[in-house]
Design brief:
Keywords: Endoplasmic reticulum, Signal, TPR repeat
Order of helices and strands: HHHHHHHHHHHHHHHHHHHHH
Subcellular location: Endoplasmic reticulum
Number of helices: 21
Radius of gyration: 40 Å
CATH class of one domain: Mainly Alpha
Low-confidence stretches: 59-63, 192-201, 205-210, 219-226
Distance between the termini: 81 Å
Oligomer: single chain
Protein name: DnaJ domain protein
Number of strands: 0
Main location: endoplasmic reticulum
GO molecular function: misfolded protein binding; protein-folding chaperone binding
CATH topology of one domain: Helix Hairpins
Shape: flat
CATH superfamily of one domain: DnaJ domain
Strand content: under 5%
Amino acid sequence: MPQLDAARLQLTAEEGSVLQLVGRVERIDQVLARSKLGEPRTIAVLLALRAKGAIVPARVVPRGAPAPVVDAAMAEEVDLEPERKKEIIELERSLDAMDHFAVLGLKPGAPASEVKQAYYNASRRFHPDRYFGKNLGSFRARMERIFRRLTDAHNVLMQPDKREAYLRANPALAQAERAAAPPPPSAPPPSAPAQHLLTPEPPPVHQLSSPPPAPRPPVASSGPSSIPPPSRPLAPPPDDGASEARRAERQARLARHPYLARTGRLAELIARGKAAIASGDWERAYHDFHQVQTMDPKNREVALLLVKARRGHDSQRATIEVARGREMERHGDTHGAMSAYRLACSLDDRNAEAAWRCARLGNLLGQDAAESRGLAQRAVELEPDKVEHQLTLGKVLLDSGSKKLAKRAFEDAAKLAPDNAEAKAALKKLRWTF
């Protein structure tokens, strides 16, 4: 803009670079494409230029020109990598235009075994409960919608009656499934009948009485002639291949029955979840029991197992956070360690070490005295025989002005460890105040 006085507007370097792009292109999407600042920052700079009066939005927009897509979700501060955020956003936006096979990443006509495996893989990537304790923001609702869509697709494609109804409603998918199905084996051509079968065999002649045997020439034999020849064996039973095939077909038909298929799936998930609990894989157990509860909400046993799996996972995470906090504290990052201890306390309120470390470090950093006092009291209640817990409680109470309660805590510490110098010094200091 030749008439623009850049010095008067006091433009920053970023604003000047974006303003130069505005002078060379016609649409905002071209500015976003050419800017090196990235979409969120470029949009912010454009708004700043508009506020200063450096640019004015066009009043007439061509009908055929597509409006630029400003993805504010990518700029949201959450505990997800940019690539992961982009994947979630793109999949959620495409859900309405995707069929059940496409949602699971399968070709039309994929068999049930592939549907099952694809659903398992997708659940491990998009189930929001995989991100315990993390800030997901609006992405939690996005992932919940994706997971519901994945579950619907799985339930339809795994149940023969629902799958058949779905394919009837979508003829293109049904045609693709028929094209993907392997051709049935061709029956061998009927062989030409043997000539001797055309002539009926004369019926055997049954004699009522056996005439005396006629003399025959001697025949060499390896055994005594008095042993009668072996009796003719009975005809073998007819080949039961057909009956076996019919039995297998009946079993397969029963297995495809919606009720039996659902019951079998529930039993499989419950058994796998219990095995995961036994092996300490709390995340796997929670995922399996959550699926069972979705399919069978009235199952009280699974509801209790789900709570157990969730607590086990949270307890495991809390232990990891305490170890991470200790390491950060060892390297001098007290604020990072405090955050780790706080997260551990929120995950597992039965973790005495997390409560004690959070109370001790919070008192040293001069943070909320009421929070430190409550955490120190919790640590003592969970593990009353720990001297360090009693000492921390005494310090927190003393700093908050509760001298009588602090003296009682130091006395309890001295009972546990009579030679503890810190407890003896604190009691000596408090002795003459009462």
